[in-house]
What does this fold into?
Amino acid sequence: MRDDIPLLVDHHCHGVVRRDLDRASFEALLTEADAPPPGASLFDTRVGLAVRRWCAPVLDLPPRVTPDEYLARRAELGFAEVNRRFLASAGLAALCVDTGFNPDALLAPDELGALANARAHEIVRLESLAEQVAATTASADAFPDAFREALADRTRNAVGVKSIAAYRAGLALQGERPTDREVTAAAAGLLRQSRPRVDDPVLHRFLIWCASDLRLPIQFHVGYGDADADLRRGDPLLLTDLLRELTTTGTPVLLLHNYPFHRSAGYLAQVFPNVYADVGLALHGVGDRAPVLLDELLELAPFGKVLYSSDAYGLAEFYHLAAVLFRRALAQIMDAGVTEGSWTPSDASRLTELIAAGNARRVYGLPG
Ligand SMILES: [Zn+2]
It folds into this structure.
């Protein structure tokens, strides 16, 4: 097994909780399910088994301890030490943190960066910002300019934005930029809500085009997510019209997660020059099947278009677990190619560096 995989750039991740967790609250964060099924445990999943195998040693336990032994040791160490250990062991050079969803008082980007000994960057969630703007804008006529100003201001120190259209209107968005008249009409509906919630396709498109005008890389949630996401509307092929239009602008588009549509995402990454893809979240979600998943993405996706992300959220374990599984999967794929004679060892090193860090640095313009 190659152990020379460089430090990773985790281009999509979130904060982790700053509190101790009992078994029920730990299991609630372990998968995309809100809670364990009656009479069963979410530790009995590929990801649960992978936590016992790969995370236990970071807490000074032998691999494959029972869930209760694992959680007892976690409680004994306390959340601050647990967070420190898992962030430090992830082997990150940089991380790009989505700050748009923070219901649980999660660690902020600079805190995560300090624990990981890595440079932390921010990704601004478009819909969250639009909802803040809507709550403080007096008239729908003023909304388009108010949002443009807020986005320019809010992203001054950010490296990209994220759209959660998949969670709201779905990904079947028209490609063309909406007119200000269309946006104003849609904004009128938004401003009438007591708690504004963006779910109008016109508004999603407007936010995306505003980000494109600022030359900001745009991340899209695609595929795998919690029960709020309607997976039938999260297929990346539904984005084809918009990707075709965005390609003419040169705006980088990053398709996140993608499972179970990762092969389609690989296709889109091949045919559209500015489209990139990862298998974050799913990679640790499938546990020891991670090499299969990454290999399937890399069937069609150019190696210069695939990025690493953990999509860690809530549990610090996922920073470590995703990194371990990704390193092992990538090494296995690269080693198999060398053994097979498909590529040379120096090809393997070069391609590994691209996928681990180089592609993300290039797309987001991160310092080396
Ligand atoms: Zn995420």
